[in-house]
């Protein structure tokens, strides 16, 4: 099968995000300039550089009460900071709860029954008990093709790692089993790993 996205795929559901999988989930927490708290998951997310460490995520829809975007990007525009919380399998239901298009006054931490911890380097809450949290200073917001598509880039200026996730000096994902996004309503979880050496190593 071949299709041109501009002409449609003819399938019951869009296959694009099922093809590019699995995708890590960035559970992004922000605080508005008015002090309001927001927490939302983004599966167009990844690390993009080592030195300095940088991450990105993309927001691809909008809410009526936020104009051309959603609460997360609107808050980052105001404050210039955000925190990426890593999602473990056991937090899947709470993560899913925070994915709704809630009013901007809604505190998703409270909605999902999650405890907050204050970040160290930025004025923002993070998910207490998350395997890791990355405190970020926004470096740029790039408008992508499409009315509501924005890519947000940030430099990681603070890193929290849960002590039990560090095994023999390595941050071991097997201690918490990260959740990943697939297509449609599907998710997957990392429960096994293997090692490959690069040529010449």
What does this entry look like structurally?
- 11% of the residues lie in helices and 35% in strands.
- It is mainly beta and 201 residues long.
- The protein has one domain: Electron Transport, Fmn-binding Protein, Chain A (Pnp Oxidase, Chain A), CATH 2.30.110.10.
- The strands form four sheets. The protein has a seven-stranded antiparallel β-sheet with strand order 3-2-6-9-10-5-4, with helices on one face.
- Strand 4 and strand 5 form a beta hairpin.
- This is NADH-FMN oxidoreductase RutF, flavin reductase (DIM6/NTAB) family.
- One of its GO terms (molecular function) is oxidoreductase activity, acting on the CH-NH group of donors, NAD or NADP as acceptor.
């Amino acid at each position: 099968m071949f299709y041109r996205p501009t002409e449609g795929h003819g399938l019951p559901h869009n296959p694009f995000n099922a093809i590019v999988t699995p995708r890590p989930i960035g559970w992004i927490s922000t605080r508005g300039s008015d002090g309001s708290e927001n927490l939302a998951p983004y599966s167009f997310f990844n690390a993009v550089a080592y030195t300095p460490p940088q991450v990105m995520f993309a927001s691809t829809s909008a809410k009526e009460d936020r104009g051309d975007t959603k609460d997360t990007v609107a808050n980052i525009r105001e404050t210039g900071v955000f925190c990426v919380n890593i999602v473990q399998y056991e937090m899947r239901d709470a993560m899913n709860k925070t994915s709704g298009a809630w009013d901007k006054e809604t505190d998703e931490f409270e909605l999902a029954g999650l405890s907050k911890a204050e970040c160290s380097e930025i004025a923002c809450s993070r998910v207490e008990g998350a395997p890791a949290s990355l405190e970020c200073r926004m470096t740029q917001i790039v408008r992508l093709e499409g009315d509501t598509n924005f890519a947000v880039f940030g430099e990681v200026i603070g890193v929290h790692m849960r002590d039990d996730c560090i095994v023999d000096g390595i941050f071991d994902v097997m201690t918490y089993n990260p959740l990943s996004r697939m297509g449609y309503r599907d998710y997957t979880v990392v429960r096994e790993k293997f090692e490959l050496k690069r040529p010449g190593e």
